[in-house]
Amino acid sequence: MAMSRANDAVAAALQEYAELFALDGGDAFRVRSYQRAAKAIAGHPEEVTPENVRAVPGVGEAIARKVEEFLRRGGFRQLDELRARVPEGVRRLVRVPSLGPKTALVLFHEYGIDSPEALAEAIRAGRLTGRKGFGPKTLANLLAGVEHLLEAGSQVHLGVATGLADRVAAALREAPGAGRVAVAGALRRGAETIAEVELLATAADPAALVAVLRGLPYLAEVAEEEPGTASARAADGPRVRLRVVPEESWGAALLAATGSAAHLARLRALAAERGWTLTGQGLYDGGRPLAAATEEEVYAALGMPWVPPELREDAGEVEAALRGGLPRLVTLEDLRGDLHTHTDLTDGVASLEEMVAAAARRGHAYYAVTDHAPDLVMQRMTLEKALAQRERLRRLQAARPGMRLLHGTELNIGPDGSVDWPAEILAGFDVCVASVHSHFTQSPAEMTRRLIAACENPEVHVIGHPTTRKIGKRPPVEADWDAVFRAAARTGTAMEIDSYPDRADLPSDLVRLARRHGVKFAIDSDAHAVPHLAFQRFGVGIARRAGLTPDDVINCWPPERLLAFLRRPGA
DNA sequence: GCCGTTTTCGGCCCGACTGTTTTCAGTCG
Fold this sequence. Notes:
DNA polymerase, domain 1, alpha/beta, 23 helices, Beta Polymerase, domain 2, globular, 4 domains, 7-stranded parallel sheet, single chain
């Protein structure tokens, strides 16, 4: 499913406005209004227009007018005014964990601190020591938070990088004389965080492509380093690099631009054993070219089949390829369903009916609705609401014989590993996902016991987003993952690969570890809106990086096998 | 700023945790 770009841009502008409004001391309820509208527009399945935006829930007259102006000229007056009043670095301050708008306001207005860097300097220089509200522990936490933030640098998650790459690639394809355009680098390898979006192209006139980059409003510092090679910086983060190469060496160039450095080093060593050299131009025996036009030819000349980009990390894939033992990696088409999704009964933005219809359009054989459970109090879930939803789902099932609808829930794993409802209630759900949503800072020993206890609960089928990390916002929880995965394998509890791009959880290195323990996986969207159902592509990328096959993934299985795994064979 | 089975004003998702406070403000999910 294609993302509707206008919606994403409008939502980003409203979200920025909400943040700036809060940082300018604006009323908290109005801040929430802008945030709610941004979330609703981002999750709205239709492309927003001046005519239909007023119908989006949470959008009233005032926001509709702002959206209208934004669609006309890419901005609105009130946003321009706030941008002029609140420096960009102050907005970055609230990315520091535990630092919210109120604190940022004090830091900026009373101390002139206008960036995370300036905050670190002020703390180190003792300028905040003794200030009411800033005790020694608070200062130490803030300093650690800033350092964590700056370490992450301009890395962005897959969702942001993919959106940026798609937009730039589409623009390049429109250029006169453009030939091929492909995404390479870490993004092609499916990495969960991206520092640089690398694009490769062929063109009759390389300068025309560089000119396209210069014309894109969301790229800055466009520099042509040599003819046909350019780099730029995207407005909100990563660098963009474009390389225009000759058609005849496309394969060698794509291989070189995709990496990883370690994988390429292995290939070069293999070439060297034969007295050959491998470069971005081709594979050569002295001056004689052996292969260059396609990646397949280059790999074949080195004695192996084409290696999927997600495996190119020098983690054993070269040896496996040489002996013909590459795994049959899971693909998006192998997925037969989704086992973790939300609706507007809790924090989703689409109704049950809309989500089910969208799932059917994706061709799923089964689809689970797993709204939040009561212990996450702000969601205001009750057993009565869950049972009423189950009845609605059963009625929808009658009209959709081609897709099995599963009524599930996303439980909360409490500090001691217990979950929201007793066993007799849980037994009424077709699928129970259990996730950590609180108490993130337990000791590793406590967190390990907690996750193992959840695995040992016979009603729990899947551990949702196991590390609970949020890329760029919250570090993963600390646990003895070997012990957790042993428990998961022993109890037949699947680990989730949550595909939501800022989660990407489990990350691929932990998937690899879990698989060695014999754990099975669920690749879920964790969708909170119709467009989010497409996030599963990111989870598939993580699974492929870990070498997973369809047999490792419970939602690749036929319905009967899945239901047996869920211990609901009669469902 | 949005919204209406409280319907054009007066509410707005609720409670725990943290570090600081000596009774609470800010942040988070």
